[in-house]
Amino acid sequence: MVETHSLETIIKEHPFFKGLAEPYVKLVAGCVTNARFDPGQMVFRTGEAADHFYIIRQGRVGLEIWSAERGPITMQTFGNDDVFDWSWLFPPYRWQFDARALELTRVFALDAKCLRDKCDKDHDFGYEMMKRFSTIMIDRLEATRIQLLDLYKTATKKPE
Amino acid sequence: MSTAETEKQSTVSASHEPMQPAICRVKQTRRETRDTFTLELEPVDKDLHIRFQPGQFNMLYPFGGGESAISISGNPAETRKLLHTTRVVGAVTRALYHLKPGDTMGVRGPFGTAWPVEKSKGNDIVFVAGGIGLAPLRPAIYQVLANREQYGKIVLLYGARSPEDICYRREIEKWSSRLDVEVFVTVDRADAGWRGNVGVVTTMIRRAPFDRLNTVAMVCGPEIMMHFTILELVKRGVAEQNVFVSMERNMKCGVGLCGHCQYGPHFICKDGPVFSFDRVKPWIEHREI
């Protein structure tokens, strides 16, 4: 476990928490633990309680869905500094997908209930967190929309 | 970097007889992916050397099959070997696909503006390619790597439809193994066997290691992909005049006479295909153009 004061420094400097007021950084730091996942290890599985969200310090994680015909299908991968995911934020607080470490991955695991309680008690803090997660959701939605366009299939670089 | 200066410097004039094709012989055809192939050509005239700059294109003419503008994808240092990578999308490229080693065909060019490889010395270089958009960038990559010590960080971000659609796979693996080049490859969709990244190429920009204030970005791919790539690069802090794109329109004459490739005040064949983003920004945002 990293000491609290260095955790606060790391959190403060992370792009996701950039600009977060000092007291809120302390609130977040109080809900963080370190975790590591070996290559191939599941971070979470569909249907399990979404009791954490994760910030990748180093490594790579794939977000998957299981298909009986095709096995695990990776929809998106996350790398250093990426935040995943947001099922912890909304009822029923269950993961909708699987997540698997693709290589040795070290993360900050943020305790979901701890954070939700703090968001409920302090709505300004809750708003700060929602703003940050909304940005991530918009980014992911935009990326998913582009992905759905299947650009490289339909694009003809050389019209004739 | 001054945009105007860069563009002027990177513009080269076409050959003295721009409408007269040089006869080239097909040395070999290499299949890159299921629908993409590379033609290796050599001028029949043993004394003819075709010098080009990265980003330029040739008009390829399979006899009796029409003519099409195809970017040059080979090494600018090899003046007797012309490489063109394309996919089968119509009659001309289908005719090109069916050429056999020893067949001859016509080549006009090289035409158009170049990537600002020379003017970017001293900067970090970020190449962002989508699908077959890696082909027009490959000559620039060769040239930058041939003069590696004159550049800062070199980053290649490449997005493909699936692992099977990755162009120049062996070459990408070779670049990836270098300690002085950062290569990130991602695919839009993959099955269980793929251990690499999944997601659109634009998502890699925010964590790519480059100095935003000292970076030249060269972008090529489908226009929608370039649009979102530019947004991410600018959001990251890269100046608009330091983002270069390769535009695509229906080119016919190659020398700015016929007007088929008019793009606002520009002719893509003559004023492009490589533009700094600030030059084409007003036109990219007009859907009628």
Describe this structure in words.
The complex is a heterodimer of chains A (160) and B (289). Chain A has 160 residues and is of the alpha+beta class. Helix content of chain A is 37%, strand content 28%. Chain A has a single domain, classed as Jelly Rolls (Sandwich). Chain A is built from five helices and eight strands. Chain A is globular. Chain B folds into two domains: 100 residues, Translation factors (Elongation Factor Tu (Ef-tu), domain 3), CATH 2.40.30; 161 residues, Nucleotide-binding domain of ferredoxin-NADP reductase (FNR) module (Rossmann fold, 3-Layer(aba) Sandwich). Helix content of chain B is 21%, strand content 28%. In chain B, a hairpin with a 4-residue loop joins strand 1 and strand 2. The two termini of chain B are 28 Å apart.
SSE arrangement:
The complex is a heterodimer of chains A (160) and B (289).
Chain A: H1 4-13, H2 22-29, E1 32-37, E2 42-44, E3 52-58, E4 61-67, E5 71-78, E6 83-84, E7 98-101, E8 105-111, H3 112-121, H4 123-149, H5 151-154
Antiparallel strand pairs in A: 1-8, 2-7, 3-6, 3-8, 4-5, 4-7
Helix pairs in contact in A: 1-2, 3-4
Chain B: H1 3-10, E1 22-31, E2 36-43, E3 57-61, E4 68-71, E5 82-87, H2 91-97, E6 104-111, E7 124-130, H3 134-146, E8 154-160, H4 169-176, E9 182-187, E10 197-198, E11 215-220, H5 223-236, E12 243-246, E13 262-263, E14 266-267, H6 268-271, E15 274-276, H7 277-284
Outline:
With 160 residues, chain A is of the alpha+beta class. Chain A is 37% helix and 28% strand. Chain A has a single domain, classed as Jelly Rolls.
Low-confidence stretches of chain A: 155-160
Terminal-residue CA separation of chain A: 61 Å
* Strand residue content of chain A: 25-35%
Shape summary of chain A: globular
CATH architecture of the largest domain in chain B: 3-Layer(aba) Sandwich
Can you count the helices of chain B?
Answer: 7
Q: What is the string of helix and strand elements of chain B?
A: HEEEEEHEEHEHEEEHEEEHEH
Distance between the termini of chain B: 28 Å
Sheet with most strands of chain B:
7 strands, mixed
Taking Cα atoms only, what radius of gyration of chain A do you get, to the nearest Å?
17 Å
Give the helix proportion of chain A (percent range): 25-40%
Percentage of β-strand residues of chain B: 25-35%
| Multimer state | heterodimer
